[in-house]
Amino acid sequence: MFYGFGTTNYKLGDVTMKSLDLVFSDIHADIGALDAILDMATSEEFTKKYGAFSRVINLGDLLERGTHPKQVLQKMKSLENNYPVISVNGNHDEGFLYNIKVSDISFESLDAHAKLTENDLEFFKKNSDNTYGQHEFVDTKNGLFCVHGGPLDPNKITPKNAGDESWLYKRVWQRLTSEDFEFFSYSGYHYKAQSAFDEAKKQVQNHIILCGHQHQETVIEQDGQINEIYSRLELKKEKVNGKILERREIKINQSNNYIIRLGLGGPEGYYGKGKTVPHFGIVQYDPKKVILFTVNP
Known about the structure:
By secondary structure, the chain is α/β, with parallel strands linked by helices. It has helices at 31-41, 44-50, 69-80, 91-97, 107-114, 154-157, 193-200; strands spanning 9-12, 15-18, 20-24, 53-58, 85-87, 136-139, 144-147, 175-176, 183-185, 188-191, 208-211, 218-222, 226-228, 236-240, 243-251, 257-261, 279-285, 288-296.
């Protein structure tokens, strides 16, 4: 077997297929869930049907709430030995890295995170200004704008009098509003889909905004109008690698824009929203599709 990048062909036995991006978000220190996702995505059954991933995109929140942060970071480092790994920070990653309390966390989780060493945290690359990691990744070639929460420029939405609350306007804290207006709360800045599309198109004309953070799958399409299309996607189930795999397929119209929010990757991060089973996605490029998966026992 050999792997490529983007739309490169690869071979599995006598079958020639296309490579793809593996995408997940909100693992939340849940090594069992991360292993389940990787076991599924690398299984022979899965790769024969969907392709083998040649790049990994993590949309943030590897840390907190769960109890195996060391193992998760070790796994992510091992992936870097074999694949390009794109990783953006989540709000829980930043909460831990900058010692900001995000939400209630169990004593077991606190203890596991307290044992992390500087070597463990090297996965979060340190920048020249002593900050960690990145808040967004833009792939202009493939039309992807990858963030944890939202793509809005914090400098444009943060009030001058925000003071100590200014960090809640960062991309890692932004969240898609369920209202028909934008507003700020202590869970972050709530943005409208139109604002997200307007911001992203400054860098990628026809784009897919990939995000996580809110633990629930969502798909919004802009084709002149803005429509929620997740509810229209056909849910299909199949048995793959001994698991029941649910999937929803989004066929990408290259003239349109999309917000695709992934569901909760790590059930240990469950906090009242979303199904408590692992979620992940893939991006195929020929033809271009995004497929959302749920791994059930």
